[in-house]
Amino acid sequence: MIGFAGLSHLGIHYSLATAAKGFDVIAFDPSPELVANLGKGRFPVVEPGLRELFDAHHKRVRYSADPRDLSGCELVFVALDIKTDDSNRSDAAPVLSLIGQMASHIAKGATLVVLSQVNPGFTRRLRGELLGSCAAAEIYYQVETLIFGRAVERALHPERFMVGAADPARPLPEAFRRWHQSFGCPVLLMGYESAELAKVAINFFLVASVSTTNLLAELCETIGANWTEIAPALRLDKRIGPHAYLNPGLGIAGGNLERDLVTVKRLAEGSEVDTGMVDAWIHNSLHRRDWLPRTLQRAFQKRGIPAGAATVAIWGLAYKEHTDSIKNSPSLAFISRIPDCRKQAYDPVVKLPSHPKFEQRASAIECCQGADVLVIPTPWPEFRQVDVKAVRAVMSGSIILDPFGMLDGAIAAAVGFDYYRLGTPPRYAADARTKP
């Protein structure tokens, strides 16, 4: 029997993935309401494939609000998501509270694994505080690598496992090894602090790719180059690779990447470590997040539209596709930057309260009704299927801001839109009439 404590995004997916590998699972959370809802297949998160995963394997999972049910488990994962505050600082207090509730119910000789993303130093401190009062034989830290919008895929088919141990030279407990073997991927064993920093390191390299891509894509918009033509050349370079993150974006969103930047700056305080590069990434992210309001202002000026009289249609409120998370959403940041405009939005899953000059519509086309501008901050796949001509038929204006290229820019310009996309020069309606 394998236990999971904390049924947020992380715990929900890892517990079901574990059941899918043939294990019986106890999934514990102190919230009776959450446990009851999960038992009925009512999820507090949105992920592609989650319903199918639950339907196929939930019979192996027993959801419980009683920590005593964990006493029959030889392996227990602490799998509560770590929240961040408005300054992107981690708050480990809920995880510590959860561990406090369950620690006395861990079976003698069981293995406890912290799966929540914690700051370097957390697991070693926890081990020192807990092993004297807890029956667990040993405590480990395992790096979680879930991605919002791809959580089911990442839980079922991990690239590798990274495990932090008090003594990396010692073999892992048998129950932990069996669990790893069921996923059939490499296991990297290292010290606690190395594993805790490994997750941060992964996110740092991702931030470097994001920031470099965004800078060069912006330069493309200025000099007439096209980033979509450049990216394939980079993917063929072995030093960069076919899976490199080379898609221009609207800064760093979601919270986890920014959290790790803040974490490293805090860890470096009082040392001689130079974190100027981190400051530059944060600055670049804030600059990129302003691409939408900057470009909208330029588009208004070209068409002579006063912002106070404009209606803006917005496709997407989530911080990215396939999720209902709005943490650091570029869409919400954009909405806050255009207070004088009337906003009408559509998102497949996110529903927000009503606000002055803001309302949500039931479909993408209805959202565009009477709008002067269409802005697409979230690249939901369904937007690719929308007929540009149908959009043109219901809009009053002729401006599209499509940072991720969900619509065909050539067709948009041909039917009379001014079309703006990240990494490419603008396409104007007049250009479409004069070019073949």
Distance between the termini: 66 Å
What is the count of β-strands?
Answer: 16
Number of domains: 3
Average pLDDT, rounded to a whole number, is 92
Fourth-tier CATH superfamily name of the largest domain: NAD(P)-binding Rossmann-like Domain
Percentage of residues in strands: 5-15%
Helix content: 25-40%
CATH topology of the largest domain: Rossmann fold
Structural class: alpha/beta
CATH class category of the largest domain = Alpha Beta
Number of helices in the DSSP assignment: 17
Stretches where pLDDT falls below 50 for ≥5 residues? 432-436
Largest sheet: 8 strands, mixed
The appropriate CATH architecture of the largest domain is 3-Layer(aba) Sandwich
Question: What strand order characterises the main sheet?
Answer: 3-2-1-4-7-8-9-10
Work out the radius of gyration. 24 Å
Assembly classification: single chain
- Shape by Cα distribution: globular
